[in-house]
Amino acid sequence: MDLGSLLHCFESPGCIAIQFINALIIAMILFLVASGLTLILGVLGVMNFAHGSLYMMGAYFTYTLMKYTGNFGLALILAPIGVGLLGVVLERFFIRRVYGLDELYQLLMTYAFILVFDDIVKFIWGSFDLSVPPPQTFRRPPVMVFDSVVPYYYLFIILAGLLLVGAIWFFLTKTKYGKIISAAAADPEMLMCVGVNVPLIYTSVFALGSLMAGLGAGLATPLRSIVPGMGFAIVIESFVVVVIGGMGNIIGTFMVALIFGLMRSFGILGFPFFEMGFIYILMAVVLIVRPYGLFGKART
Amino acid sequence: MRLRKLIRSYTWLLLLAAFLIFFPMLFPSLAFVNIVSEMLIMAIFAVSLNLLIGYTGLVSFGHSAFFAIGSYTTGILLQKFSAALPSPLLVSLLSSMILAGIVALVIGYFCTRLTAIYFSFLTLAFSQIIYTIIVKWDKLTGGDQGLVGGIPKPMIQLFGLALPVSSPFQLYFFITVLALISFLILKILTDSPFGWTLRSIRENPERMNFLGINVRKYQTIVFTISGFFTGLAGALMALHVSGSYPDYAHWTKSAEPIFMIMVGGLRVFTGPILGAALITQLSAYVSKYTGAWGLIFGGFLILYLMISREGILDVLALKWSGFKKFREEK
Q1: Using CB atoms, which residue from B113, B129, B301 is nearest to A288?
Q2: pLDDT tens digits for B223-262?
Q3: Which of A203, B59, B121, B162 has the fewest beta carbons closer than 10 A?
Q4: A112/B contact by beta carbon, under 8 A
Q5: Does B24 fall in a domain?
Q6: In this complex, do A274 and B294 lie within 8 Å of one another by their Cβ atoms?
Q7: Are A287 and B133 an interchain contact pair (Cβ–Cβ within 8 Å)?
Q8: How are beta strands B161-163 and B156-158 bridged, if at all?
Q9: What chain A residue is nearest to B260 in terms of C-alpha separation?
Q10: What's the whole-model pTM score?
Q11: Is residue B306 part of a domain?
């Protein structure tokens, strides 16, 4: 334990600000990935362990696009679309077969894809760490917050993240398509009866979820190293967020992503190597006390 | 008649024992001994996990926790307290099992409040808590490096006999004997009324509740037994690789025995053993000749899910019972 450095941090506004910004960055990226996961879980009822691999593919797509075009904005648009298309292929040919089956088969199918994708990535890109430099546009003198340095790109992620949170919320609750999605989650058979092509909705939800994973990955690439097996960590973190927030609950996912970011960025000062421990303890407590999640509603 | 049935249902164990003991005596090979040791360890792991998955219908994603507790307990006790303990090896193994069993009792007590996917997630959360504790507590566990520097394997003092287990061959026979005993105990357990109660709980927990069976109590007990034997598997693994690593506690380790169970068959007692043997063997060969274990194994799993979805022995058992019925009708 290193409580001293945590207390020391609380004495300086600069340190609090920088840890807070770090927390927001963790939260934004995690929210994007986890909201895709919760959407797939809520609507399709599939525990998609391959979601982390889709995130990884998003990161590698971004890397390749950056390498050949050098245009980060373009990469940030095309990479998620690529991941979304990959999601369509996955859903149409494979994941579709395990809908409604025992979760064992879902685990097996999606976990198998983690193994496959990790090896594919090793063959195409090699097993070394890759990195993407921060985009040109953001290479300017950093912002000073209470005499702590905050790179421009951090602010961009936070802003973009907040916009996307709003957009996803609006899309799922206010548009017709969003309402069809919640109908598909509640009663797919009834929805089929009123003439909606439910299998198509399922494919599109999976593609949308994949796209969000790709978007999170695209935003994260300039900050994190890209390496095969990077999906393992993010998928388990996303599951933690989804479970604590209540499965299928977008607002809950966002709130818990924030809590996760704060616990992680401040926890790493006070309890290095054990910051994740508290998050898992929170997950266990929530599951025992409120299995439907902090922000979910009990199903009767 | 009953005796014949009894003998028939344990023939596989006798055959397995004969093969495991005599084959390496006739054809001593270090490679064989090494790989079969690992197979047997994973088979204990998979069979004890299958008590939950196949027999009780509870999918635990967190069994890596008990495997790691077993392997770290034996590793630490032998590394640091070898001189202080009487009969150190057996005491370490027993402590591994008991500690894993106690932790399983506590975790199981909470997890069995939940059902289906929530149960799985809670086991996952607990195993990740254990994982972070192992990584954090580096004074005891060696942190993310693991327990390195080798684990001593003192002689076993039993009934005035001294059995050495320091060479791979000696250790192999030790592991074989323990694995066979574990299989025997677990097989007797699954054939007992307790085992049939578990199957009924899997099929219809509500109804069992109405019948006056305390479902949660049964689930907690079987969770504990499962953790107890998983602890043994972990302890043997620590001896086999002469070390213990945080990876043993990571959630990805929990997936391995699940694969073995699913491939071998989860409705037949020997299914997980076959699965463990196949997957361990395959993994060794594929990794030796290509670098693409994940691609090949993952692809194989996906194909298997698309085509049959039944474990090998499940299919055979179904065919066999159909054949028997056919013969009886004739």
Answers
A1: B113
A2: 999 999 999 999 999 989 888 898 898 888 888 899 899 8
A3: B162
A4: yes
A5: no
A6: no
A7: no
A8: antiparallel
A9: A108
A10: 0.88
A11: yes
